[in-house]
Each structure stands twice: as structure tokens, then as C-alpha cells.
Amino acid sequence: MKPMLEAINVATNTSFKIEAYNSSSNCESTGWHIHPEFELVYVKNGSGILNIGSQKKNYDDGVLVFLGGNIPHADFGNKDYEDGLEIVIQFKKEFLEEKLKVFPELSKIKELVEKSKQVLIFDHQTKEILWPFFKRFEKLDNQGKLINLLSVLDYLSESAVYEKLFDAISLSNYKKDEIRRLEETFEYVNNNYHKNISVTEISQKLGFTPNSFCRFFKKMTNQKFITFVNEFRIGKALEFFSENNTVIADVMYRSGFNDPSYFTRQFKKYQGTTPSAYLKSRYSESPLQDSLL
């Protein structure tokens, strides 16, 4: 089965994305999927199966795995224990090509990131040693998270024991041109979500007619382009709400919506609640500044 290409929403003010999932907030399954971002996954405990490319590998008592971009894989986590925790760190290739290369002292980390294209599965001792670092992410601001991530990568590049899942660099079944076009589409939405998204403009940019672009996007992602745009915008709205912005109208416009009723419907579709109810639960101790929605 051909994997679905997943869009990773990395915030504009960060170089990477970190998500944590526990037994009550499990990562929504995306099934067999692929994305251009590198991915470092820490599963605290429990047993499961790593389905990556053409390989399957069982794990017990959690796992720590690092895989490069454009490698098809299924979800890694499990629901064996109530105290289970899965921490997923994702970053784009620009993190390696533009940021890490600035510091020659980080050459071993750059080598580690390159090796991740063969998929690295670390031993149990490495996973246990790094647990305090992964646990620490939830309490850190963006600067602290970057420093903590570099500490993790430093240890992995200097002292960790690992096995390579593939003897050679794993290649995606997707054509390079298909991946390039999807990456350009995601980048277009990332740069223009707050404005009017033009299917005609993005179609011309990629060499499609509007109809052929919509068919291409549906084939590659298993969802309509407008669905993806709305889901992306709601993700941005959550990002803006997390910045202690409780003015719903402001967040609505900043995330690319112009109609309060439509914004409310889309927010409830993806979050299961209205913007005002979401804010009340998030900022229960402080009054809302806006009751527009």
C-alpha cells in the first residue's frame, strides 16, 4: 500500500516540532505515512512493532529511534501502560543544511543526522540514560528546548550504541518530483495561510491545472486541499492561543479565517469544541477578552 504523505506543521518561531502523547492523549493514528522531516521518537515503555520501509522490528520496554526524511513508516507508540509516554521530535532538512552547518563544532551531530537516513535504533541503556532529557522538554521554553535537543543529539553522536535498520540509505517509493511538489505545496500554505489561498496560483506554480492539482493532492495525501488548509489554519490558531492570546477575533484573522461562524465550525471539527470553550478550559482562572465566538 502506498503511504500517505503527512504534512508536519512546524511553527514559524521554532526550528523543530515536539509533541508528547500519553495514555489519555494518544497520537492520532495516521497509518502508513511518509514526510520529508527527520524524526526522533522516544517511547517510554510497553511493547510494539516498528514498521519502517520494508522492515519490521519488535521492541520491548519502549524504544528510541531516529529516522531520516521520506522513509515510509507506521505509528510507533503503544497503549500498554497508563504511564506510557511517546515524545516525537521532527525537524526539516534545513535544520541540518542551514543551522547546524554554522557551527563546525557540531560535525558529529551532523554525521548522526545523516546516518538517520538508514534508521537508527538505540540500545536500552541509551534510552534510559536520556529519559530525564526527554522528560524535561515539557517544562522548557523554545530556547531551552533547542539546548536540550542539542544535548540529546550530542550524547547520541558521542556515546550511544545503536543498530542500523538498513544497510544502505533507504529510498522512498515516491518519485522525487512528487515529493518536491508536495514540499512546495506545504511551503506555500505555510507562507500564505494567513492570506487568501489561491488554488490557481499554487497550481500554476507547480505546473498543474487547478483540477489536476486537486487530484494530485488527494492522491498523495488522501484528503482534499481545502481540508488540509483548514486543518493547518486551525493548528496555527492553537499556536496563537498558546501565546496567551485570548482575543478570538484576532486569532481568527491571524490564522487566515474571515468568517466567525466558519471559523467556529472548523475549530469544532478539528478540536471537538468551540474557540470560546477551548479558551475557558485553557485559561479558566482569567476572564476572556473576547466573546465573539
UniProtKB/TrEMBL annotation:
The keyword Transcription applies. The keyword DNA-binding applies. Keywords: DNA-binding, Transcription, Transcription regulation. InterPro entries: Homeodomain-like_sf (IPR009057), HTH_AraC (IPR018060), RmlC-like_jellyroll (IPR014710), RmlC_Cupin_sf (IPR011051), Tscrpt_reg_AraC-type_HTH (IPR020449). SUPFAM superfamilies: Homeodomain-like, RmlC-like cupins. GO terms for molecular function: DNA-binding transcription factor activity; sequence-specific DNA binding. Transmembrane segments: none annotated. Pfam families: HTH_18. Residues 183-281 form the HTH araC/xylS-type domain. This is HTH araC/xylS-type domain-containing protein. The lineage of its organism: Bacteria, Pseudomonadati, Bacteroidota, Flavobacteriia, Flavobacteriales.
